[in-house]
Design brief:
Blueprint (H helix, E strand, L loop, with lengths): L1 E5 L2 E3 L5 E8 L7 E7 L6 E7 L4 E3 L7 E6 L4 E6 L8 E8 L4 E12 L2
Parallel strand pairs: 2-10
Antiparallel strand pairs: 1-3, 3-8, 4-5, 4-9, 5-6, 7-8, 9-10
Length: 115
């Protein structure tokens, strides 16, 4: 399985971006797809995750601003990011897991929130 992320870029504070991640290969058994982010000097952190059944989880700092969605038919996951703040600046990574351990990581996509 390969994951290809896209959609990052430069946005002003308060703006929006939509990240997408498409899985290729034998992805039909993937249960959890998620977005993580990593800022310089910080550890990679979970942003949001979604199960095949549609259950979602968000880190507190993005709840109510970010929304994760999934298209099982296309093996894709999206992250709609609204009301972006400078502290959201990071490289965002998508991941895929069959169970509780992450099996695959995608390439990173840089999100920069700055005026």
């Amino acid at each position: 399985v390969q994951l290809q992320a896209s959609g990052g870029g430069l946005v002003q504070p308060g703006g929006s971006l939509r990240l997408s991640c498409a899985a290729s290969g034998s992805a039909v058994d993937i249960n959890v797809m998620a977005w993580y982010r990593q800022s310089p000097g910080k550890q990679r952190e979970l942003v949001a995750e979604i199960t095949r059944g549609g259950s979602t989880k968000y880190t507190d700092s993005v709840r109510g601003r970010f929304f994760i969605s999934r298209d099982n038919a296309k093996n894709a996951v999206h992250l709609q990011m609204n009301s972006l703040k400078p502290e959201d600046t990071a490289v965002y990574y998508c991941s895929a897991a069959y169970g509780s351990n992450i099996n695959y990581w995608g390439n990173g996509t840089l999100v920069t929130v700055s005026s």
